[in-house]
């Protein structure tokens, strides 16, 4: 199982993954992340991103996705969908070209086929997350909201099945996970059983309601 956790800055992804691993210890998460790459290469990110920096991060995320086999249980902090969200923002600000964005979208669509589930953590009015300043996260509230809105557009694209971002017929589901840390894990438990596997149709919690 390959699971990715996506969302804007300072939304609680790291905390969610920590709680996830406590609940489902059969999973691991990569020791090296895109943050290490950014520090090692001193890559400009967020509102200062460029085509070159976005390409370097995208290549890292693609390689990271390919390094784990389908038989492994791995949960990733961000994936190629995040890269597309930030490249989309940069394109809207005329900082990257339409050609670059189109090339990114094609590679992202193909790479998403490697994942089984994507959990999206949106900004909500309830259960706000403490903002942490670490030199990598952009705490600008407008920027954070704009990135969140782009993710929500991606979500609509998935629900419509238009194939622009998520591959038709071979796409992982993208599922919103929200609330307090405890509520997020409780909500995740509606999609994963105690063994960390997705519920089959015959096991679904929904089937117990009807």
Please give the structural blueprint.
Layout: E1 2-6, H1 13-23, H2 34-41, H3 51-66, E2 74-77, H4 80-92, H5 98-111, E3 117-120, H6 141-160, E4 174-176, H7 181-188, H8 205-209
Helix pairs in contact: 1-7, 3-4, 3-5, 4-5, 4-6
Q: What is the molecular shape?
A: globular
List the uncertain runs: 206-210
Our measurement of the CA-to-CA distance between the termini, rounded to an integer number of angstroms, reads 28 Å
Q: How many β-strands, per DSSP?
A: 4
Major sheet, described briefly? 4 strands, parallel
- Round the mean pLDDT to the nearest integer and report it: 91
Q: Which range does the strand content fall in?
A: 5-15%
Q: Which structural category do the helix and sheet elements fall into?
A: alpha/beta
- Tally of contiguous helical segments: 8
Helix content: 40-55%
The succession of helices and strands, N to C, reads EHHHEHHEHEHH
Q: If you compute it from the alpha carbons, what radius of gyration comes out, rounded to the nearest whole angstrom? A: 17 Å
Q: How are the strands of the biggest sheet laid out side by side?
A: 2-1-3-4
């Amino acid at each position: 199982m390959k699971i990715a956790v996506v969302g804007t800055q300072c939304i609680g992804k790291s905390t969610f993954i920590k709680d996830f691993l406590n609940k489902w210890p059969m999973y691991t998460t990569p020791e090296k992340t895109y943050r290490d790459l950014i520090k090692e290469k001193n890559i400009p990110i967020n509102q200062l991103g460029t085509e070159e920096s976005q390409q370097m991060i995208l290549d890292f995320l693609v390689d990271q996705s390919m390094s784990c086999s389908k038989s492994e249980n791995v949960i990733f902090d961000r994936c190629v969908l995040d890269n597309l969200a930030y490249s989309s923002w940069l394109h809207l600000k005329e900082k990257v070209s339409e050609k670059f964005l189109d090339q990114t979208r094609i590679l992202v669509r193909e790479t998403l086929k490697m994942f089984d589930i994507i959990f999206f953590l949106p900004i909500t009015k309830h259960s706000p997350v403490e903002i942490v300043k670490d030199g990598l996260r952009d705490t600008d509230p407008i920027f954070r909201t704009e990135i969140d809105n782009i993710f929500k557009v991606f979500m609509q694209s998935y629900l419509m099945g238009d194939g622009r971002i998520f591959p038709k017929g071979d796409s992982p589901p993208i599922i919103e996970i929200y609330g307090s840390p405890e509520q997020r894990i409780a909500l995740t438990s509606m999609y994963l059983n105690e063994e960390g596997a997705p519920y089959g149709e015959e096991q679904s919690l929904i089937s117990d309601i009807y």
